[in-house]
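Task 17 of the worksheet. Students: predict the tertiary structure of the chain below and write it out as C-alpha cells. Keep your answer in the requested format; marks are given for formatting as well as content.
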Amino acid sequence: MNLRNSLFVFFFLFSTGILFAQPPAQEELTEKGSPVLNSSSLTLFAGENGTTYYIDFETINTNLKELVLMNEFGEVLKREDLSKLPVNTIFELDLSTFGTGFYEVELRTFSGVLRKGFEVR
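Model answer:
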C-alpha cells in the first residue's frame, strides 16, 4: 500500500510539472529551416535617387552567404552570392528596375537569416 501511495504521489507531481512547465521557445524559421537572427545590425542606407540602397557589411558580425531580395508577395526578385566578398564591403542594391513598393532583403548566413523590410517610393 505504501508503494502504491508513493507511486501515486510521484506521478501526480510529475504530471503537474508537465502541465506548468514552459513550452519550448519557438523561433521563426525560413523556408529552408534556418532560424531568423536578430536583424538590428542590418542597416540599409538609401541613396540620393531613392532606388539605390547600401548595406554596410562591416556592421554585421557574421559571415554572409547570400542576399535574397523579395517583393511584398514573397517572390524572389534577386539572388546574389556574398560568400566571396570582404567583410568590410558596402553592398550596393539597385532597385531601379523593380519600381516602387515594399521589399524585404534577406542576408543568409551559415547559421541563420537576417531580414529587413523597406519601402521604395
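Marker's comment: The beta strands are 44-46, 52-56, 64-71, 76-81, 90-94, 101-109, 113-120. DSSP finds one helix and seven strands in the chain.
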